[in-house]
Specification:
The complex is a heterodimer. Chain A is mainly α. Chain A has ten helices and two strands. In chain A, strands 1-2 form a two-stranded antiparallel sheet. The radius of gyration of chain A is 20 Å and the shape is globular. The N terminus of chain A is likely disordered. Chain B is α+β, with helices and mostly antiparallel strands. In chain B, the strands form three sheets. In chain B, strands 6, 7, 8, 9, 10, 11, 12, 13 and 14 form a nine-stranded antiparallel beta sheet that branches. Chain B has a three-stranded mixed beta sheet with strand order 1-2-5. A two-stranded antiparallel ribbon of chain B has the order 3-4. In chain B, a hairpin with a 7-residue loop joins strand 10 and strand 11. Chain B is globular. Chains A and B meet through helix 4 and helix 7 of A and strand 6 and strand 14 of B.
Chain lengths: 263, 492
């Protein structure tokens, strides 16, 4: 559809006036993501840093304190889980907006909300489960890092691994396979079951694609800004018409540099 | 065949060039060529010459054909990034093929000139949608026979589902130009139709065909059969280039017939992806869709005999008001996948009009503006086939209404789980508004719709011509095996 005003063609704001905004597959995941960022910001503000990012702003003293905080972590699984959930919502939900948008567009209006909730539940559920083994790994990495003092090596290793992962065939295959959006049949219950299963599968595929990059800010002891930048890189890769892994190595390197500089 | 135009004429298109005078080639309809015209004869000689060039030569016949798709030829080392690049089910379908046939035209034209032919040689197009002359839907005579009068091999011949008169069974629905009535080049992200195809990234094979790609493009490929029916072998058939020349012409015609028919203004389309081919000199040529909007500026420059001169170029700053229309809603769907089996397959769609947008159900809008039939996630393998699609209500006595053709060109590529889009298959959309009105499909009484798929009969394809290159013979002889993920009815 086109419009002409005063003889000149013009562009409407692309998102707010587009069909897409009528689609709950777009708006609710984005609101949840915004809520995730808000929660992360609040946690960060209250304690001077995210518990999942031990070394925020760290000098020697902070690192020692971070090691000390390890005990507190283990004693506070609720906050840990909440932070992880907020982090997943904040960083990963924008990435799957196109999938959920297509899902909703192809679902009968009577079932859209149930299908969306089921898909989100499956997606977030699989990510929360992934957090169970991931968090001890992160804590262990930090603890070791504190002992042998790796302030520079940690960001270099974490982002280096994430950059190498960009080129690994299994990741490239996962990137292609995540394009497929399935179709659900039957009544409300059957469709919700299908959507939940799809959400879990999509979560698993997304984890293969994104987990190393997503974990890099945590391993490097970086905070919100690094997480936000990594999210932009992951989003850019999905939105670039012809993504090439090599292109995304540079921004990864720059975010790693921020980690080296304790930013 | 050469037309000289002055720079002043180009100014109307907003083009500013250092060249005050340039020469462009004129592409003519193949059946309009005079009996004494040698365009096809020089094409034949050039094709034969290009076939003599080695596989690793970017100006060889083999190389240029494998750029579209490689049937299994062992690729030379320098082919990385050049072979297997055709764009399908994407908004890059038209621009990529424009670049492709124009690069090919440059290579052939140079070969023609090297052979002593006319320097102004241009690729002809085959307008199979014409009804006059009556033979326009038949394969042009120069392409029909395997051997010439002197007993030598005809380089324009390829295995096809054609009889001796060149009849490949084209029907009105196969060569329909309904696509030219489509207003938008590219539709919204979530409901994919449009004239030119859906928004995608680089898409060797994708999901949803644009209207023009679906009909007549896909149907022609399948009706001609043989190498043409498989994207990995299609460009090895010399008729491929005349077919795509016609598709390119239809793009120009679509733009020329209505000022609102404009190319996408988005930067992602204009320059989001850069493609690479080779020019006549064998040197790489990089281009993006923004470089192809004026045909007189593409490589040597060309235009079509029946169309006006250069069209107004839509620049990156001239953009479109988009997205104020209403998103379609699913109003009914099949409750299981449908496997096409035998000559006729029936499937049922349960209509669920309750819960739809209040404007429909409360009578603010008396009826949906549009009704679409959407075949989603169509996957399969084997030799592609065409199917007539028909609808009727289960509980009425009316004969089924034909609503379109399902063409499965490229289905094996789109079903490949390791392909660009994870093997989600094809999606085909039909505007069935007129048929829906006749069936009163939008009323609450219409509860069960029957959708039928009738296999379109096709002539057998003769044994393949031995061309002395390994790989071409792999075209699978297996019959088509097609599954439709879901049949959906959408109201808009």
């Amino acid at each position: 559809m086109s419009n002409v005003a005063g003889g000149a063609r013009f562009e409407a704001p692309s998102l707010l006036q587009s069909k897409a905004i009528q689609n709950p597959g777009v708006i609710w995941p984005l609101l949840l993501s915004a809520l995730g960022w808000l929660v992360l910001a609040l946690f960060s503000g209250r304690s001077g840093g995210l518990e999942l990012c031990l070394g925020v702003g760290s000098g020697t003293f902070e690192r020692v304190r971070a090691s000390f905080d390890l005990g507190l972590f283990l004693a506070n699984p609720v906050r840990l889980a909440a932070e992880w959930a907020a982090m997943v919502a904040a960083m990963m939900l924008p990435v799957i907006v196109p999938h959920l948008s297509i899902l909703c567009a192809r679902t009968h209006p009577a079932f859209k909300r149930q299908v969306l909730v089921a898909a989100l539940a499956g997606y977030l559920g699989i990510w929360l489960l992934l957090g169970v083994p991931l968090v001890p790994i992160l804590l262990l990495t930090h603890a070791v890092g504190e002992v042998i003092s790796w302030p520079i090596l940690l960001p270099v290793l974490a982002y280096g691994a994430a950059a190498i992962w960009l080129f690994v065939p299994i990741r490239c295959a996962a990137l292609r396979r995540c394009h497929r959006v399935p179709i659900f049949y039957g009544g409300s219950t059957a469709q919700q079951r299908g959507a939940f299963t799809y959400g879990m599968r999509l979560g698993g595929v997304c984890a293969v694609i994104c987990l190393p990059a997503m974990a890099a800010p945590m391993l490097s002891g970086q905070g919100l800004m690094a997480m936000f930048l990594v999210t932009q890189v992951l989003l850019s890769e999905r939105l670039t018409p012809s993504p090439r892994a090599a292109v995304f190595v540079v921004p990864m390197g720059l975010i790693a540099l921020l980690g080296v500089l304790h930013i | 065949m050469v037309e000289s135009i002055h720079f002043e004429q180009l100014l109307v298109s907003g083009i500013h060039s250092q060249e005050a005078r340039m020469v462009i080639r004129i592409r003519k309809e193949v059946y309009s060529l005079e009996p004494a015209d040698e365009t096809l004869e020089w094409y034949r000689r050039a094709v034969a010459a290009l076939r003599q060039r080695p596989l690793g030569d970017p100006t060889s016949w083999w190389w240029m054909a494998a750029v579209h798709g490689n049937p299994g030829i062992t690729p030379p080392a320098n082919s990385a990034g050049f072979w297997d690049r055709c764009q399908h089910q994407t908004w890059y379908f038209l621009p990529w093929h424009r670049g492709y046939i124009t690069a090919f035209e440059a290579i052939v034209a140079k070969a023609v000139e090297d052979l002593g032919g006319p320097p102004e040689w241009a690729l002809p197009y085959w307008n199979y949608s014409l009804t006059i002359p009556p033979e326009a839907r038949r394969l042009p005579p120069a392409f029909r026979t395997q051997f010439l009068a002197d007993g030598s091999e005809n380089a324009l011949f390829a295995p096809r589902a054609a009889d001796a008169s060149g009849d490949v069974g084209l029907r009105d629905v196969d060569v329909s130009l309904d696509a030219l009535g489509e207003d938008d080049f590219t539709p919204s992200m979530s409901f994919q139709t449009g004239f030119g195809g859906p928004r995608t990234g680089f898409s060797h094979f994708g999901n949803a065909n644009g209207e023009l790609e679906s009909i007549p493009h896909n149907a022609l490929h399948v009706r001609i059969g043989g190498w043409m029916s498989n994207p990995n072998t299609a460009a090895f058939d010399p008729i491929f280039w005349l077919h795509h020349c016609n598709i390119d012409r239809l793009w120009e015609e679509w733009r020329a017939t209505d000022p609102s028919h404009t190319n996408p203004p988005e930067a992602n389309w204009l320059q989001g992806v850069t493609f690479q081919l080779h020019g006549a000199d064998g040197q790489p040529w990089a281009f993006a869709p923004k470089d192809l909007q004026d045909t007189t500026q593409v490589l040597h420059g060309y235009r079509y005999d029946t169309l006006p001169g250069p069209l107004v170029v839509v620049g990156a700053g001239v953009v479109e008001m988009a997205g104020l229309d209403i998103e379609p809603e699913l109003a009914g769907a099949s409750d299981a996948p449908v496997t096409l089996d035998g000559d006729l397959t029936h499937a049922q769609v349960l209509m669920q009009t309750e819960g739809l947008r209040t404007s429909f159900t409360e009578g603010i809008l008396p009826t949906p503006i549009k009704v679409y039939l959407r075949l989603e996630n169509v996957t399969g393998a084997g030799v592609p086939a065409d199917y007539d699609v028909l609808i009727n209500l289960v509980d009425d006595d009316l004969p089924p209404l034909e609503v379109g053709v399902l063409s499965t060109f490229g289905i094996a590529n789109s079903s490949d789980p390791d392909g660009d889009h994870g093997g989600q298959g094809l999606t085909q959309v039909y505007d069935i508004s007129a048929a829906a009105e006749r069936l009163k499909l939008t009323s609450e009484t219409a509860s069960l719709l029957q959708v039928s798929f009738r296999t379109v009969a096709q002539r057998p394809v003769p044994e393949f011509v031995p061309l002395g290159i390994e790989g071409l013979e792999i075209l699978t002889p297996d019959a088509a095996s097609i599954q439709i993920g879901r049949i959906g009815i959408y109201f808009e």
